Amino acid sequence: MFNKDTIAAIATPYAESAIAILRISGNKAVPIVNQIFSKDLTTLKSHTAHYGKIFDENNHVIDHVLLLFMKGPKSYTGEDTIEIQCHGSTFIAKTILQTLINKGARLAQPGEFTYRAYKNNKIDLVQAEAVQSLISAKNKTATKAAQEQLEGSLSSVITSFQKELTDIAAVLEAWVDFPEEDLAFESFTSILNRLQKTKEKMVYLSNTFDEGKKLSEGIKICIAGPPNAGKSTLMNFLLQKERAIVSDIAGTTRDTIEEQVHLEGMQLNLIDTAGIRETDEVIEKIGIEKTKQAMQEADFTIYMAEANNIPESDILNLLDPQKTLLVINKIDISHPRSIS
Q1: Which of 286, 289, 241, 291 minimizes the C-alpha distance to 271?
Q2: How far is the C-alpha of 326 from the C-alpha of 224, rounded, in Å?
């Protein structure tokens, strides 16, 4: 249920920094902050910034702050909204927040400011989702996609689907309700064509889900292959650090190792895996099963093999050629054989 009380929260990450920001929203935001700020907010213009002091309940100065006042409905939430920029001490931020709560504000629930923006018709559900996508964007492409969604690009496409289907439904209902009237309806063939075109557009949009997920979460790349093929060496090279243990002993890697790296603006989620081979060793068997599972779940697999130990065709047949790169390693110290 939508609660119209006044909420407050620390908007910046909970860590020491140069600046911390607190946000207050609701119909009592001004009266509450007025009790602890050195200037009278009722005399201030909307969308202005003001330097002043924040006091605690004993009238002691908590911090010198910059206060931004945005009167509703011209604010993010559509309500009277105040942002307080203080020094980035976690103690100072928490003290100001507790003082606001003591004066009548309520601690906001996660996402409640965006929820209020939705309830007050400032954004729709698709745009609300875009806020989180923008916050968690890990590369330039994901940021751009989230910004376009927040600006309403996806919402307009969905609205066009709704309008087209509503128009078609209206024609069909008129056919049913007034079968004997001489009304100039579209032909049935025209209706089917419109439905088919709309369906194609919706399917196309639906098929972009995986691409959008890769943009926001990164591309999952599994590095697999037999033991001692150089998988961990490749992992360390891509990361530019010694993350995985490298050894001449086959079967050194027993479990999956996951790390992230950014390459040309794209996030890659690398997974180093246990070498695939026949073994009776229980722990190694578990690692090999996890390797196979990682290969199935990955967006792309780099399958590494030594030049003199290229996998047999039955193993290669298990790999999806559309999302697998076969890398032949150690060609300088081996006698490579051809792949049959």
Answers
A1: 291
A2: 10
